Amino acid sequence: MFVPPHAFPPDPARTGTSHAAIVPYGTFAAGDGTGIVLSLQNEREWASFCRTVLARADLPADEHSTAAADV
Question: TM segments (predicted)?
Fold first, then answer.
């Protein structure tokens, strides 16, 4: 049986490196315009990133970076 190609729904749009439920996760623009890929998947990784990369150990406790589950 022949099924014409238009009988199928279109392919879903690509989402790139972003993730629907994890933030920050994906490619972000750095200050000089280059891209940097972050894939921080849990609170432990976020705290480690803040402490070692950003030198901001206080950031995970900031109300603006509270986990969505805590809101």
Answer: none
Cα distance between residue 26 and residue 54, in whole Å: 17
- Alpha-carbon distance of 27 to 23, in angstroms, equals 11
Let me know: does 10 contact 4? Beta carbons within 8 Å. no
Taking the C-alpha atoms of residue 44 and residue 60, their distance in angstroms, rounded to an integer, is 10
List the beta bridge partners of residue 39.
25
Walking along the chain (71 residues) 10 residues at a time, the average pLDDT comes out as 78 78 86 91 91 93 71 49
Residue spans of beta strands (DSSP E) within the chain: 25-29, 35-39
